[in-house]
Amino acid sequence: MIRTLLRVLGTEHAGPVRRTLALMTATAVVEGLSYALLVPVLRALFGGTPQDARPWLAAFGAAVAVYAVLRFLGDLSGFRTGTALLRGMYHRLGDHLARLPLGWFSAGRVGEVSTLAGQGVLQAMGVIAHLLAPFVSALVTPLTIVVVMLAYDWRLGLVALAAVPLVAVVQLWAARWTAAADEERHVNDEEATGRVVEYLQAQPVLRAGGRTTERFRLLDDALREVRRTSRRATLAALPGAVSLTLVVQAMFTGVLVLGAHLALGARIGTAELLALLVLAARSADPLLSLTEIAGRLRGARLELARLDELLATEPLPEPGEPVLPARHDLEFDSVSFRHGDRTVIDRLSLAVPQGRRLAVVGPSGAGKSTLLQLLARFHDVDAGAVRLGGVDVRAISTEALLARTAIVFQDVFLFDGTIEENIRLGRPDADEAEVRAAASAARLDEVIARLPGGWAAHVGEGGARLSGGERQRVSIARALLKDAPVVLLDEVTSALDPGNEAAVHEGIERLTAGRTVIMVAHRMRTVQRAHRVAFLDHGRIVEHGSHDELLRQGGRYARFWALATVPATGPATGPAPGSAPGPAPEADLR
Ligand SMILES: Nc1ncnc2c1ncn2[C@@H]1O[C@H](COP(=O)(O)OP(=O)(O)OP(=O)(O)O)[C@@H](O)[C@H]1O
């Protein structure tokens, strides 16, 4: 396990870990030896020459003092090394997560990683700080006592020694026996944690549905599973604990019976036997704690294996000799992309000349957002190529690619800081005047005026104190501040109030002017701003042209808007003659 720990964290921690282990081993040996000094003490006390006990008592006192000092140093070293490992692990994890492709961070992943980065790292790294000392003591102290017993009386020592292989077998067997149950419990714990979060987040939906007192079945099921697997894991650990107790008891009984037999034959003194029995009893305690410590170590090892697996996830390859694109036109060249075994983008080709705007429209799940993600290299394509300025995005360094693209997604993430801090993320070195200009351009002035504290007001966790439209305006301000030549925009789907709607459109207008833009559009007003429109379905472009051309065609696009606008305005876009979706044409928007 320590080898895995060092492999995961790097060998620079090997020295301190080895030193800690050596200190803890020395502590356990001195502990065993201090018990060994009880033999001459007891022999003197019960052997008729109590005054002979004095020097041994002094030696016992000295041994206890040495033990105390070593214990302090060992614990201190364990704590320091554990803290350094914890810091090292957070750095490694942070560095690694920063290199993973953005597409890797799905909602499920975020939950999994936060559990792992929180309690998982603490548990795995706590091994050195909290578990190693009791584990070494549980092994080394009894072994030292056995060696001492062998030195005093080899026959009794051999009986005690016979317990060693039995304890090892019991531990191996217990590990195998509990592994499946421990894993199952871990999976169920994770599931239940996710369900609790889901339950809390789902409160508005549940209450809107009138389910205020009703229990949430999914959470109930998950908690029931946790109960079942916890019981199973406890039961699975029981045979190991019972077997270990039996082995220790058998060893003690063996020493007692043989000792009594030897004493009756006058081959060992009563005082000596008494002392050796005390020693045997002292070795039992740490041995019996082995089951619990080994269980906790196995738990920590599971977490370590998960961390190891996460750190082994490959980031997207960075180009050896990165190319910097000189232009900012965009091109999808016969691109295919799959999520698992599902084809999301299917041999799609399109081009957006520099400074032109393409609107992508289509039914839900058509692959519109995925197109944007492929451009920003959240994922790599399975076939074909995505190009920026004629250069394959895989040949551009991630840094250069992201520096050239401003992304405004539907789900805007805001930190619990001020609006200014949130906008500044677009370009951290921007001065205050530039940040304020971007905020004004995104019509955030009125939002700031409304917030108590104005510019200094915090937006709440995830931007909770702002509406969806306002959050998107912050995101637009961020993109405006970044001033990147390429803009990828995923318009919010939810309906906005007229004030927000107008402000968002004004912001989009400013953001997209003169830039190369692909925007996933959900509103007619946005589409009308685009030079060209591509209608996407099942990962293929089924129609393309200008908004007016496509309406005149009366195909899928026209039917789409007719349906989308009926409730509000009636069939304003004209009747849509039923034309079948055509083959996937190449959309050249020049
Ligand atoms: N991380 C993922 N894992 C598996 N499938 C995914 C993942 N992300 C998206 N998909 C699937 O890919 C398909 C395209 O998704 P995408 O978000 O691009 O659609 P969309 O056209 O933008 O839809 P919407 O307008 O509803 O946002 C969908 O069927 C979706 O279920």
Summarize the structure.
Helices cover 62% and strands 11% of the residues.
Walk me through what this model shows.
The chain has helices at residues 2-9, 14-36, 38-46, 53-99, 107-152, 154-201, 203-208, 217-264, 270-288, 290-311, 368-375, 398-404, 419-424, 432-441, 445-450, 468-482, 498-512, 524-527, 547-553, 556-569; strands at residues 330-339, 342-352, 357-361, 383-388, 391-392, 405-408, 486-490, 516-520, 532-537, 540-545, 587-588. 36% of the residues are buried. The chain folds into 2 domains: 2-311, ABC transporter type 1, transmembrane domain (ABC transporter transmembrane region fold, Up-down Bundle), CATH 1.20.1560; 330-588, 3-Layer(aba) Sandwich (Rossmann fold). The chain is built from 20 helices and 11 strands. With 590 residues, it is an alpha/beta fold. Helices cover 62% and strands 11% of the residues. The protein is elongated, with a radius of gyration of 35 Å. The strands form 2 sheets. Strands 6-7-8-3-9-10 form a 6-stranded mixed beta sheet, with helices on both faces. A 5-stranded mixed beta sheet has the order 5-4-1-2-11, with helices on one face. Residues 568-590 have low confidence and may be disordered. Adenosine-5'-triphosphate binds next to helix 11. This is ABC transporter ATP-binding protein.
